[in-house]
Amino acid sequence: MRKLVTLAVALTLGTASAAAFAEGNAFVNANAGYSDYNINNNSLSSVGVTGIDTHLRKRDPAGALRVGYRWNSVVDYGVEVGYGYLGQARIQVSADPYAARLTQKNRGFLLGGNLNYNITENWYVSARAGWFRGRNTYTLTAYAPEGTYSGRGTTTNTGEYFGIGGGYNFSKNFSLGLAYDTYHTPGSALRTSESFVDGLEMRGTRVGMYSIQGEYRF
To answer: 117 CB contacts (<8 Å, ≥6 apart)?
Structure first.
């Protein structure tokens, strides 16, 4: 009897799950744009570096790719997994005859949920949020009369991401719009083979991404 009850429950849940998936769409969502790192030249003065020429580049090409499933409702809701490539930021400093360049790259995996609301048959707004497993890679190159030094290290931690967007449904299967997302990687210890900086606690990183967003539903 117990086995029959268990089987009945399993069949009921399986049927319900199949019905739920029949009322939605799988999707592939892609973003292409540029990143904007939340850093500025004042970052140098915070570590005691002043009185030198600096050049900061905190914007870089960026993108993301997500796949998932969304259920239809008054406000459609779904789950997503994906990968975000957030480009890099670069600070160059110089005080003749010395110079240095520090770059930071950020990328990682995404897991979260999303909402989509069709204002009309064609126009929509959307939102998403979830976890971001970010990997930051730091590269330092220093130039001096006596030679060149370079070092590299990484930090990996789990933070959050969220975003909003809006656009136009060209058909029931394809839409195109604009989006803004922000990604946060908490600070963590630097991992590197350079013993004098290995284990150094790095500040958390927040990166915004402005992009064109395309989605195909099937």
So the answer is: 74, 75, 76, 124, 125, 126
Measured CA distances, 97 to 39, 47, 52, 53, 147 (Å): 26, 21, 11, 12, 11
Phi, then psi, of 172 in degrees rounded to 5: -70, -15
pLDDT band at 197 (very low <50, low <70, confident <90, very high): low
Domain count, the chain: 1
- On the question of pLDDT at 98 being above 70, the answer is yes
Q: Which DSSP letter does residue 39 get? A: -
Cis peptide before 97 (omega within 30 of 0): yes
Phi, psi of 18 (to 5 degrees): -65, -40
Question: Who has greater pLDDT, 191 or 15?
Answer: 191
Token pair for 189: 């210890």
Residue at 197 is within a domain = yes
Q: What integer pLDDT is reported at residue 14 of this predicted model?
A: 45
Q: C-alpha angle with apex 109: 102 to 17, nearest 5 degrees?
A: 170
Record the pTM.
Answer: 0.80
* Residue 203: CATH number of its domain: 2.40.160.20
Q: Does residue 48 lie in a domain region?
A: yes
Do the Cβ atoms of 6 and 54 come closer than 8 Å? no
Please give the residue range of the domain that contains residue 56.
Answer: 25-217
Q: How far apart are CA 111 and CA 126, in angstroms?
A: 16
- The answer to whether the beta carbons of residues 212 and 36 sit under 8 Å apart is no
